[in-house]
Amino acid sequence: MKTTTTSLLILFVVALAGCGTTTGERTGSGALLGAGTGAAIGSFSGNAGKGALIGAGAGALGGYLYDQDKKKQEQPYYYDQNRRQQDQYYQ
Fold first, then answer.
1. Which segments within the chain are labelled E, that is strand?
2. pTM higher than 0.70 for the full model?
3. Do residues 51 and 39 make contact, with C-beta atoms less than 8 angstroms apart?
4. Which residues have CB under 8 Å from 65's CB, separation 6+?
5. How many domains, in total, are found in the chain?
6. 47 Rama sector, left if φ>0, alpha if ψ -120 to 50, beta otherwise
7. Is the distance from CB of 40 to CB of 12 less than 8 angstroms?
8. How far apart are CA 64 and CA 43, in angstroms?
């Protein structure tokens, strides 16, 4: 029973991890994923609450870093007269 519940929880949290297009949504979904994973791992050691808190913090940080990387990839580029790629935000 415990294994089934843990597996379903992890599956649900992983499904939520792909949600979000804004910084808040991606950070929040990362925190949920981390909390779920941390609780599942922490339950094996007998301290699911502590595992959830640590996982939520790590997941939120991961979600934020992922969001910043995605935003950087979406920045428009153009080529100057010498055909060198230029980033319009860093002129």
1. 77-79, 85-87
2. no
3. yes
4. none
5. 1
6. beta
7. no
8. 26
